[in-house]
Fold:
Amino acid sequence: MRGQIRRRFIRWRVGHEIKLSVEDSPVPVSCQLDDISLKGIRLSLGIELKENRAVRLRFEFSEEFILDVEAWVAWHKMEGGFHSYGLYFTRVTDQQKEKIYQFIRRYFSEEITRRWHDETQEEEKDITMEDRRVFERFPANISLRYINLDSRNEGEAQTQDVSAKGLRLATNQELNPNTALELFLEVPDRAEPFYTRGEVAWSEMTGPDTFRAGVNLERIDFMGISRLLKL
Structure:
């Protein structure tokens, strides 16, 4: 099961110049394709994209590989005078996924070989898993309450970092892997707590009666995560 999850999120590092067309500005602009997976893309360009929204995009990887998708602008930061963006594909067909793979296979076959080699390196599991995340993790210290849906016990925790797909928590109770949780994050924006559900992916003891756990969220709530990132 873990191997299936890992292959699902393989991300290929490319570093290739492509053309990008945005729905409200059809004139293509040049940008740098930093890396890509079947779930998202990271690129650098000289123009700004609107954050926390879905947008129609056309990627011209080459003359024969053109991809029209809807993507969510998940995060943005400045790097070396350029805008660096993480985009999540909200609507992508199997045919479009195959086009991405064929593009990598045609022009960057060594990336496929390298990734397959990485799968055999047990000591790199945590690093490669981190590298394959579609969304960047952000440090965040947010109080939350949770309900263990298996035992119905309640508990409290602090987030250590968040992403659109998961949370890392610090708590004084051990949470076993595969435990289903209801989560209520106390976001200080004068609104209701951010409610979500998730499943414990891993757990470890960090000290006497202190534990750390990783929680995969049941679904991606872009607007809810946006509230957290504004902090």
